[in-house]
Here is the input.
Amino acid sequence: MAKLDEKATAGNSTPEETTQPFALRHSSLAEKKKQFAESAAKHQNKMSQNPFSGQFRAGERPKLSKDDPNYGRPVAGSKSERRGRGAARHVNAEVVFLCDMIHQEGYQLPDGTAAITFGELFQLYTRISNKVVGMLLRARKYDLLTFEGETLFQGRNNDTVIKLLKPIAEIRAELNEDKEFDVGVCHKAKK
Here is the structure.
């Protein structure tokens, strides 16, 4: 009997219970048609500038300038921007994990930092992630660690020493301060 009562009253919702905006619920058919036409025109314009759509028109492509602050960046508020921020957050966490591993598995130095050879680190870290060299380069870019050479290769650089430049507590604190991430930037190094 309860299901019958629910079905009988389903169409009798109050304005507070509906999910449509107030203006849409209480507008005339002409206003709704106008809103739809505006939305369709906006979408059509966007698709005419998208080279991957079937409606792309080469002559209407906007001119790009390398001086534009948005050059090479996803559209603000887009899914691409959200994915980029998520990726930067993930890279930040992986850099912290790499530095933790160097601290835990390496040999401790008197200044509170730690060091490990690339061969040892490679054997330990590749069981967790195959991005050990990329993470090392990223951590070096942000002055968290140092090693000799441009990059490291398994076998050839196994004896190269990788050294943390700061104590692990300072590295964790610095990287955990980052709460807002920008696309392509996992850490805003202190100047």
Notes: The first strand starts at residue 107 and ends at 108. Residues 4-9 have pLDDT under 50 and may be disordered.
